[in-house]
Design brief:
With about 525 residues, this protein is α+β, with helices and mostly antiparallel strands. The protein contains 12 helices and 20 strands. The N and C termini lie far apart (about 60 Å).
Length: about 525
């Protein structure tokens, strides 16, 4: 069973060295965290993401890999002494996801080192995860909870309830796998980064199921579709599209999936065409999943025009108010950008902004509330259309603006020219604004009804069919229309937003055209 877990690497050895010698925890998202006596008092304890990292035992991964069982036992004993008797109703330490991942690591330790001293602690965790009222059904949390129960049943077979853990874990896992991806192989939680993360989770599930000789029909087909989408949602700069709760990731494929056709496509985009098989076509519509992608070329890195258009809420998890959002990366540069995730602290004003309508390239109504309760097919979506004079055409709709429906067509002529056409139903007399966010490295001007966005080598002109439309430009967070971007957890940078409006009509379009400087 040890082949289910990652092997030791040089980073693990360095982590252990710094942990013991300098009382330093090396982290990806929080920098170096120092502790004095117990690690449970270290780091930004007012940050939910850090609390999750701490209480899910993520910081133990390197210690497990190098096999320092004595140190692991000390740390787990200190956690147990301090937190095991805390009421389960407390968000931390008993966060539903952190609890599952904590048990997962306790199980790994038990399996890898034949360690049985965590019997009672594992029993409490397993029986808690068994409870229906603790189970986060149809989420990435629920997926990990299911996997954790199965692994714990193998790690602690002497626990009387362990057989029930496996039965329930398997039942839930099948349900989670059916829900987590659409029939097109796209993860439903509104984020390319979470899509890649869930491919990793599916791989863990596949390995674990094979170990216990269980084969769920259709899993490998789903993997292939998920990899195909991963290839399309990778930008020409070889990073995943920064959309919704996404941060900076490059795609990768595990060795055991390299035989899938979709894996060869991921290899192509991640290697700038040096390896793998080139995908075909200029665009892909994932209609059931709410994504449209246009890519003008799969060669000649990095000068492609790359457009992503999203409209579809299939899960409330990691949901942002970003239906009808459009992103543009072209000629090796970012143009239309999204806000990002920043963190998971819902009380943080920056996080609140990141999720809001104002953080995206979408219409904005000052007097209309956003519907965050409803979702699913029929609430929002995309479909292919045909429009004379345009090579590629797609239409999205959304009901997230509570008073009516908004429709947006994206019409693409070629790599230098496209149109965004918005129309509105049941918004009579309502003021509307139209926001387009750009990075600070672009200079922006407005003259004679034309907005000009300049880079060192290109200029992008935006014109509208509404001649008297107002224009404003805002930079940074403390604005009527804020604009900041976060491509790394807990880190943000100022950006800028072009705002058109107010507009009172029922339809309007914006033409985007590239020219050489």
């Amino acid at each position: 069973m040890k082949d289910l877990f990652p092997p030791e690497n040089k980073k693990d050895i360095e982590f252990l060295k710094q942990f013991i010698k300098n009382k330093k925890i090396i982290t990806k998202n929080f920098g170096d965290i120092f502790f004095v006596e117990q690690i449970w008092d270290s780091g930004p304890l007012d940050n939910r993401s850090w609390l999750w990292t701490l209480h899910s035992f993520v910081v133990f991964d390197s210690l497990i890999a190098v096999g320092d069982i004595s140190l692991l036992k000390q740390l787990i004993a200190s956690w147990s002494e301090r937190f095991e008797d805390v009421a389960v109703e407390e968000d931390f330490p008993w966060h539903d996801h952190a609890t599952a991942l904590r048990l997962d690591r306790i199980s790994r330790i038990a399996i890898q080192f034949s360690e049985s001293s965590f019997y009672e602690l594992a029993r409490k965790h397993g029986n808690l995860l068994l409870r229906d009222d603790f189970y986060e059904k149809n989420t990435n949390h629920g997926f990990d909870q299911s996997l954790s129960l199965i692994l714990a049943s193998l790690a602690f077979p002497a626990i009387p309830e362990s057989s029930q853990w496996q039965v329930v874990g398997l039942e839930r896992l099948k349900s989670e796998m059916d829900f987590a991806f659409t029939s097109e192989g796209v993860h439903v939680e509104n984020s390319p980064a979470y899509h890649m993360g869930m491919i990793g989770n599916m791989l863990r599930a596949r390995r674990l199921l094979r170990h216990i000789n269980i084969n769920y029909e259709g899993v490998d087909s789903l993997f292939d579709k998920a990899l195909i989408f991963l290839a399309w949602i990778t930008r020409p700069d070889r990073f995943l599209t920064y959309l919704g709760d996404s941060v900076s990731y490059r795609p990768n494929v595990a060795k055991e999936l390299l035989d899938f056709p979709g894996a060869s496509m991921v290899e192509w985009v991640s290697s700038a065409g040096n390896d793998g098989v080139k995908p075909e076509g200029e665009c892909a519509l994932f209609e059931k999943s709410g994504y449209f992608v246009y890519r003008s070329s799969w060669d000649n890195w990095p000068g492609h025009t790359y457009i992503v258009f999203k409209s579809g809420f299939l899960s409330g998890y990691h949901r942002q108010d970003d239906d009808l959002n459009i992103l543009l990366h072209a000629y090796g540069e970012d143009w239309l950008i999204d806000s990002g995730m920043y963190n998971h602290n819902q009380k943080d004003p920056i996080r609140q902004y990141m999720r809001s309508v104002k953080a995206h390239n979408v219409p904005y109504f000052p007097d209309i509330k956003i519907d965050r309760k409803n979702l699913g097919i029929g609430f929002s979506g995309l479909k292919a259309i045909e429009v004379d004079g345009w090579k590629h055409s797609v239409e999205g709709f959304t009901s997230m603006y509570s008073s009516g429906q908004v429709f947006r067509k994206v019409l693409i002529k070629d790599k230098n020219s496209f149109r965004v056409f918005d129309s509105f139903s049941d918004f009579d007399g309502k003021k509307k604004y139209f926001m387009f966010h750009f990075p600070l490295d672009k200079s922006i001007g407005f003259e004679n009804g034309v907005v000009s966005i300049f880079s060192k080598t290109k200029k992008l002109l935006i014109t509208s069919n509404s001649n008297d439309l107002g224009f404003a430009l805002y930079k940074g967070f403390g604005q009527v229309f804020p604009s900041v971007v976060s491509n790394k957890i807990n880190h943000k940078e100022d950006s800028q937003v072009v705002v058109f409006g107010p507009f009172l009509g029922d339809s309007i379009f914006f033409d985007f055209c590239f020219f050489d400087r």
